[in-house]
Amino acid sequence: MIGPVESATSTGEPQKKVDLPYTRGGWWHNYVCPVHGTELLPQGIPGARPPAGGLPCEYGCGVDTEDVRGAWLVLSHQAWARRADVQAYRAARTDDPVARDEAVALLTGLADVYARVAMGGENEQAQGWMLRGRLFQQALTDAIWSVSIGHAAWSLAGTRPGGAPELHPLLPVLDQAVEAARAGRQHLVDDGHFTSNYTAWLNASGRVCGVAASLIRGETPSTGVDDDWVGGEYGQIAHMLASTTRGGWEWEATTYYHGFVLRAYLLSLRGCEPTLLPENARDRLLAMIGVLEDLATDGGILPAVHDGPYRRAGLALEWMELCALSDAFARNRRLGAVADRAGRDAGTQADDLADEIRTIPGGWFGAPALEVPARPRARVAVDEESGICVLRADGIHAVLDYGPHGGSHGHHDKLSLALYGAVTPWQPDPGQVPYGHRAWRAYYASAAAHPTVRVDDRDPAEATGTLITRTADSVTVSVTGDENTWYEGARAIRHVAVASGYLLDVVRAAADRPRRLTLGLRPDVDLTVRQSGDLVRTQWNGEETLWGLHRGFRDSAAPGNGVLAIAHPGPGPADDPQRVRTHVDWTADGATTVTWVSVFEAGAATVVDVQVDGATVVVRHGDGRVDRHQLPEQVLHD
To answer: In terms of pTM, does the model score above 0.90?
Structure first.
């Protein structure tokens, strides 16, 4: 069912008709090609109905299933709400009657959509595990949609003292959004899931839609932390402090969901002066922004740790929005390169939402941004609670993951080492496909998809690693298996050090019996592998070049006894599983201990040899220079 939206403009002329979808949305994660595992193309979005003949993938498929149509409707509904948001911000900033008329027409039209298709109760098509929504299958999706609607209404009504009668048709939608947010939050609290990322968006929906409804009615809403949705027992501040580490990481240690909840927090704090927030909340928000600053490369790549898209235009829009909100909260931050890269990734889907946030009258928080000096970037930065470590060598940005699994969004990536240049993903975290594709989702969560240790070519049980030692220039972490965690009877340890001109990586795996022990290399660039004797050289070719020199030692730590670097074709990261890359499995069969040593250099290759002499790694350069690195005792002694 579809219907035209038509209303009178401020000059009395008929508003241009806009066809909106009069059908409930499904689950956006089903918007995926079942053959190729890529997200389907955004054909016809925003629109009223999915295109006839199915939705295309980039390889030429046309997919026309109920699940895909429902996913298309999610994306279309959200795109219409986003358009209303942009036009409302523009109208508030410029007093442009055309922008205001379009925003009002869209909001009243969306109110009619909601009244006709969602007022009847919860969406019965929701899957059993979902917290049910009304317009969509998930309450989470309802909340995200309503935040856009609420902010659009807030912007329009906020410029009309005494209320906005033209927006009265929207009041039932806003009121029901507040009611649904409160009920959904209580459900999560009762189930012991208060720290869920859903809670952040339910709080955002309750706060934003409540303020918007008050403004439409001509009331004066709360704009401070006294609002229950912000400072209450289960409000945003309580959620933030409960669901993030002291260092600022969201508890799942997932780049996507970290940004997801941070965006919800900042959207819900509109009008709240940063200086008036409790100190612990203000500091935690700064730490959350700092996590992204530390994680991002100088060229703006945000590694896709754990679940979340590797690259996606829709996600790029969210990063642009988040960067604008973060800049409004605190100046002198380092997210400019992230915003610029996201703008390029958004491509033709880019819009003006981030720019409108940056120029909103009076500022997003109703006060100037905090003046926070930029923190110096450490060569080695570790968040011990999340188990994420960022190392910076000359031209190399490395991310080492050793911490907790991350709940339902975790991957089997303990001791995984991702490698980036400023703009080149040499060996990135591969990210995740839309969840609706079960086979590829399972692969990208697997150990085989990550540059880490595997035992007997199986996936491990969920595991948490341990920080052994850390210095200003190095970090050493380990993971140990038992009957319930990782690989029973196996242990691995990884020591990564930032040296002068290179990154040193030493990995040791040990097993209680002869087993197949493997260390994987997983590039997203063209990889050249050459072996000479027991020395392996790799060249990683992208916009920047990475050089690797590697040796493997088995059991007795003597070279040349059966540690094989086996190159084979494999899928690239999760934005396109069909992109073939050269994978390397560096394997020893029937081994009880294996040590792998690598030296990585960006730009130019100067190292000619690497050896292990007892507890010392010896690195030799072409100019005759010799570096000696003392390994922590635990690396070579189980």
So the answer is: yes
